[in-house]
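Please, structure for the following, as tokens.
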Amino acid sequence: MNITSAEAELMAICIGLIPAIENPSNHQILIVTDAITAAKQILESRPNPFQKAIIPIASSLKAFLEKDNRNRVHFWQCPNKAQWPRHKLVDDQVKASKNTSLCPSKNSYLFSRKKECEDILKEWQDEFAQGKKKGQLFLDFKDEKQSVIKPTYSKGGSWLPSIEFTNALCARFTRMTMGYAPIGEYCQRFFPNTSLSCPCGQTNFQT
């Protein structure tokens, strides 16, 4: 099946929870994961897109928590970069597995939404790269690999986080990027009778 990584993580946790809940000697269940947001959906009572994975064990989990006051479920966040040996061992084993899905190929709701979002973003980036949307004087920026930075809407966008949202700096940055700064190249288009040279004195045309 085509599902998101968060759905896969949540399903794996639910599968691991079943034997832990069914063992009568267990009172404290510890979930170690690198996707803590997805894991906490297990105890979320409000409607959410992950309920398809949660519903099969919801009643068993409820019974476990109500059975004894000592019964608890704890979550530990363990990022991959922490390289905790036990977590890394499981992570490596899962990535190395070659299991073939027995289910017919179909998309989950979250996967379909994610794919549609990615398709829209790619179309936007392609149109932007052709220059029809950004204008002829738009200043392209490159990353550390010398690849042109593509526009995105996530995490504040592609460029604004770099200038820390300072109003004065943001205004200057925008004028520079769009080519509307009061420099010779701009003045040549709108104020050709003004000086077009650079204050540095090394060129007669400021860009």
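The first strand starts at residue 28 and ends at 33. The chain has seven helices and two strands.
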